[in-house]
Write a sequence for this structure.
């Protein structure tokens, strides 16, 4: 076995600094392993008369001060805080800035960034999914991964693209590991997406998947029973039509259901044509 090379002086100094050894406590080294440590010699008169070399003073340990800790808000308090904050946002830009500063949802601390929205805020059609994934967390935009590419194809099938729609999520921060958001996390974020819908004020709302459908439309039925059915959604200023459909990520796992999504897309295109007529 080849012995490890002896460390250089620079490496030893770096090691001591990392270990916290950054100052001398006495002029002479003391062997702490000995039981009987000799008392330091008393200075003679001649030594006392000579000026002593300056010695770096030892670091004085300060008594630890217990800083007051701010307890995280309870879920109920966070929901109330989100509701009150969202109501104060007069524009989408103000809402985005407010959400950037909101600390009532723990997901904000684990996500890379806020995923607010994409598309045209003046669009007649708004689509809302559940939560960002890994790609969305990196890009800062909703639906940019595999499911986003499929969503783009779905929109193109009825003559739309991202310049003609507005896309957001109920949850604006990625849950760790792409796990399902908890009911508490959904309720905390719900006032923000509701205010976002109110500010966009679309003519049609499409909920993508079961979680966003249940959160926004207040139904407990599964997506297979709600998809393709029109609901009334109250934006706070008026009532608009809302249509649940299958999430693109689900269609990637179950491609046989694309025919159902195509039916929903045709219904959306018909409704948009009627609004534009």
């Amino acid at each position: 076995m080849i012995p490890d090379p002896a460390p250089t002086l620079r490496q030893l100094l770096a090691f001591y600094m990392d270990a916290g050894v950054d100052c001398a406590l006495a002029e002479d080294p003391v062997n702490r392993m000995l039981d009987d440590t000799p008392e330091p010699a008393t200075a003679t008169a001649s030594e006392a008369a000579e000026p002593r070399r300056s010695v770096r003073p030892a670091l004085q340990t300060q008594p630890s001060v217990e800083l007051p800790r701010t307890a995280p808000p309870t879920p109920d308090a966070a929901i109330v805080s989100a509701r009150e904050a969202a109501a104060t946002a007069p524009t989408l830009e103000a809402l985005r800035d407010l959400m950037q500063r909101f600390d009532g949802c723990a997901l904000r601390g684990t996500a890379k960034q806020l995923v607010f929205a994409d598309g045209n805020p003046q669009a007649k059609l708004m689509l809302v999914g559940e939560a960002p994934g890994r790609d969305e967390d990196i890009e800062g935009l909703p639906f940019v991964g595999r499911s986003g590419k499929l969503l783009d194809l779905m929109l193109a099938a009825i003559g739309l693209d991202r310049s003609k729609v507005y896309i957001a999520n109920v949850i604006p921060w990625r849950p760790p590991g792409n796990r399902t958001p908890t009911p508490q996390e959904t309720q905390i974020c719900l006032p923000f997406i509701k205010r976002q819908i109110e500010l966009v004020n679309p003519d049609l709302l499409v909920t993508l998947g079961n979680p966003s459908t249940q959160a926004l439309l207040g139904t407990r039925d599964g997506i297979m029973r709600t998809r393709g059915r029109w609901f009334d959604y109250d934006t706070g200023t008026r009532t608009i039509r809302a249509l649940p459909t299958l999430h693109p990520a689900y269609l990637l796992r179950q491609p046989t259901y694309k025919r159902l999504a195509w039916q929903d897309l045709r219904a959306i295109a018909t409704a948009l044509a009627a609004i534009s007529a």
Remarks:
- Confidence is low (pLDDT under 50) at residues 42-49, 52-69.
